[in-house]
Write a structure and sequence with these properties.
The complex is a heterodimer of chains A (325) and B (122). Chain A has 325 residues and is an all-alpha fold. Chain A contains 13 helices and no strands. Chain A has helices at 2-34, 50-59, 71-87, 106-114, 116-127, 131-154, 156-162, 167-176, 185-198, 210-213, 223-248, 263-284, 290-315. In chain A, helix 2 (50-59) packs across helix 11 and helix 3 (71-87) packs antiparallel against helix 5 (116-127). The radius of gyration of chain A is 20 Å and the shape is globular. Chain B is mainly α and 122 residues long. Chain B has helices at 2-29, 58-82, 84-91, 94-115. Classes of the chains: A mainly alpha (325), B mainly alpha (122). The interface between A and B is large, with 81 and 69 residues. Chain B: NDH-1 is composed of 14 different subunits. Subunits NuoA, H, J, K, L, M, N constitute the membrane sector of the complex. Chain B: GO terms for molecular function: NADH dehydrogenase (quinone) (non-electrogenic) activity; NADH dehydrogenase (ubiquinone) activity; quinone binding. Chain B: The chain crosses the membrane at residues 6-29, 60-81, 93-114. Chain B: It catalyses: a quinone + NADH + 5 H(+)(in) = a quinol + NAD(+) + 4 H(+)(out).
Chain lengths: 325, 122
């Protein structure tokens, strides 16, 4: 069993790297199809090696550090951004037995550790000593802290229904009743929007708005240092799609008694749906304006998240509904 | 339980190790031909003007302050939410009333900020 404790995370690391490689490929293909294009199809059969070639190219790129940059912070920033992205995966249970750290405060751990990445991004923007990078970093920090509040508050309803912050317990609470997406629908919508904003994906990709900020906080980064910012971003997609599956869609539990399909496959199905949903959204939505972005978090999502908490408490008192809450 | 915390430590170590190892071995592969022109800060092709470490608008700090307030609220809400069912049977609806009062105070603060147009991004 100790073998699993040491080797399991290493295997997961390679699975995540494989996921990131093919998520990027799949994203480009999906957006290509939606926009009536072919997408990458030159490298390897059906373009399957496109991202592998891109990664190799990044690996042999010269590592340019601007002369005016704060060199030690510049080198530290991608590591600070990436480490929490992988560390949050420790508390994600993939099935009832396939999990790494089974701690009581799993959900809180996820929220707390994932916010460390903001520091890495801000640090990267600051250390570059570049106007675009600093603006992108500041915007990114402002966006991430603003959307973290609704993200954290929208899952309070789930914690009230499940009576636990342990992600395995939250899934078990959904197996006896209905999936939390139905009773916690308001919480789910707030969580989904805030999660997309936390991932800085379209329509909330303002920190990287090419048209005004060149590339945002990683303007000065090249080669593998840049790659680690991108890797952190896609690792968070892996983590966030898993978290939505666990919190609102019953994790590995099978719907309609279709138990002949193994739990892990169910988890992967639901997980992949949310990954696809993010790509679909990127091809569909325009980018929103920065003033709309901030006002939406504080004036719409925050009141709705608080409302969801009290609705959950209220529904617990209504005899017919209380079984679902 | 101890095994869980060992797992967390391994995840953190791996998360630090991957970028370090990749960047170290990348050094053996990538070229290194520094030129003074390469090390100029990027500013759309022209020479950079002025300093980039500038003073920032106060609105960033206002949002940071609001964030701290509501994050602390979340810290209080989580244990309350987890033990809600237990406290509900032990103390009755008082547990809900108590939290309503707490959240109401913060909501008054939010409404004040709203009316003062702090939440607007100008």
């Amino acid at each position: 069993m100790d073998f699993f404790v040491i080797l399991g995370p290493v295997v997961l690391l390679f699975i995540v790297l494989g996921f990131v490689t093919y998520a990027i490929f799949f994203e480009r293909k999906v957006i290509g199809w939606i926009q009536n294009r072919v997408g990458p199809n030159q490298v390897g059969p059906w373009g399957l090696l496109q991202t592998v070639a891109d990664v190799l190219k990044l690996l042999i790129k010269e590592d340019v550090i601007p002369q005016k940059a704060d060199v030690s912070l510049f080198k530290l920033a991608p590591i600070i951004a990436y480490t929490p992205a992988f560390a949050v995966l420790a508390v994600i249970p993939f099935t009832e037995s396939l999990k790494f750290a089974d701690i009581a405060v799993g959900l809180l751990y996820y929220m707390a550790v994932s916010s460390i990445t903001t520091i890495g991004i801000l640090l990267g923007g600051w250390a570059s000593n570049n106007k675009y990078a600093l603006l992108g970093g500041m915007r990114s920090a402002a966006q991430m802290i603003s959307y973290e509040i609704p993200l954290v508050l929208s899952v309070v309803g789930v914690a009230m229904s499940a009576g636990s912050l342990n992600l395995t317990e939250i899934v078990k609470a959904q197996q006896t009743g209905v999936w939390f997406v139905l009773p916690q629908f308001l919480g789910f919508i707030v969580f989904l929007i805030a999660a997309i904003a936390e991932l800085s994906r379209t329509p909330f990709d303002l920190p990287e708005a090419e048209s005004e900020l060149v590339a945002g906080y990683h303007t000065e980064y090249s080669g593998f240092r840049f790659a680690f910012f991108m890797l952190a971003e896609y690792t968070y997609i892996f983590a966030m799609a898993s978290l939505i599956t666990l919190l609102f869609f019953g994790g590995w539990s099978a719907p309609f008694g279709l138990t002949f399909i193994p739990p892990l496959i169910w988890f992967i199905f639901k997980f992949l749906f949310f990954v696809f949903f993010l790509f679909w959204l990127r091809a569909t939505m325009p980018r929103i304006r920065v003033d709309q972005l901030m006002e939406f978090a504080w004036k719409v999502l925050l009141p709705l998240a608080i409302l969801n908490i009290f609705l959950t408490a209220l529904f617990k008192e209504i005899p017919v509904l209380s079984q679902f809450y | 339980m101890e095994k869980s915390y060992l797992s967390l430590a391994i995840f953190f170590l791996l998360g630090i190790a991957l970028p370090m190892v990749a960047l170290f071995f990348g050094r053996l592969l990538r070229p290194h031909r520094p030129l003074p022109e390469k090390a100029i800060t990027y500013e759309s092709g022209v020479d950079p003007t002025g300093d980039s470490w500038v003073q920032f608008h106060v609105r960033y700090y206002l949002f940071a302050l609001l964030f701290v307030i509501f994050d602390v609220e979340a810290v209080f809400l989580y244990p309350w939410a987890v033990s809600y069912d237990l406290l509900r049977t032990e103390m009755g609806l008082f547990i809900l009333v108590e939290m309503t009062i707490f959240v109401l105070f913060l909501l008054i603060g939010l409404i004040y900020a709203w009316k003062k147009k702090v939440l607007e991004w100008r």
